């Protein structure tokens, strides 16, 4: 009677007891198998602790110790070879060979350096890593906060040739793209930077607003300098050896046309307005036209606007495009808020769990306007 009652009490725990017993048995068997497989190879090589060692194993140990003995190698410098000091760069970007994306070169003159060039600097300088101004005026005094390079000759072909030579010599290894523009051009800097970021750098590219040469074939095109144009680093490197020849052989009163002829004659490369799905969009501003009244798709999506006759017009264009960018940012915020509101329906708290009120965006937009 007592045995049956004891079995009744232990019956729920029988599977646990059997499992523990089986696990302990298998663990003991595995340990015995591992210990019985063979002797330790280290014991074979060295011998039992405290016991006699085999003479061959001792010889092997001595030889292995000799392999790891340090050896002093004296420094010797060949006196016939010039000594070159190794310079360590200050920045990790330079040491790794990384390059900046875009450099902007602005062609200016003595008459517009203190007016239009200053307006360009105030509207776009903070968007680009480096902005340089090139002029033919000898000894030009740069305005505050501007880096001006004076070539000393105002001839158009000479100015363009020396500008390209300067870019190649001083910045050819530091930048992937070079944007050349005139000081009577307004540039939408964020869009231009985004365009350069979407283009592959390992190609010869001459991108801008295409224009046909007078009396030339349909394939011979150059980029209009008034709307700016992009030159890839690889194209600048290939063009550099031909600059002297082009300056002596090509006669042109326009620096952009001279550059286009030089590229076609020396490298067979003409201007294109579209590449890899990216379109270079520009807008020609009519005389006495108010930027506030421009609402065409060509104007709203333009990378560059030309011509800009005075600095005041440059600032008005900047105000107009800044307002458009602000409206675009507000529109994106509204879309994101709508998506967040739709997703809160799936959360346990619902719309009550939102951390911002429905009028937060409206009040911020009212303050911005």
UniProtKB/TrEMBL annotation:
Residues 319-346 form a coiled coil. Its EC number is 2.4.1.-. One of its GO terms (molecular function) is N-acetylgalactosaminyl-proteoglycan 3-beta-glucuronosyltransferase activity. It holds the Pfam family CHGN. It is a single-pass type II membrane protein. Residues 45-64 are annotated as: Disordered. It comes from the Eukaryota. Its main location: Golgi. PROSITE patterns: PROKAR_LIPOPROTEIN. Transmembrane segments: none annotated. Residues 1-19 form the signal peptide. The keyword Glycoprotein applies. Keywords: Coiled coil, Glycoprotein, Golgi apparatus, Membrane, Signal, Signal-anchor, Transferase, Transmembrane, Transmembrane helix. One of its GO terms (cellular component) is Golgi cisterna membrane. It is found in: Golgi apparatus, Golgi stack membrane. PANTHER family: CHONDROITIN SULFATE GLUCURONYLTRANSFERASE, CHONDROITIN SYNTHASE. Belongs to the chondroitin N-acetylgalactosaminyltransferase family. This is Hexosyltransferase. The gene is CHPF2.
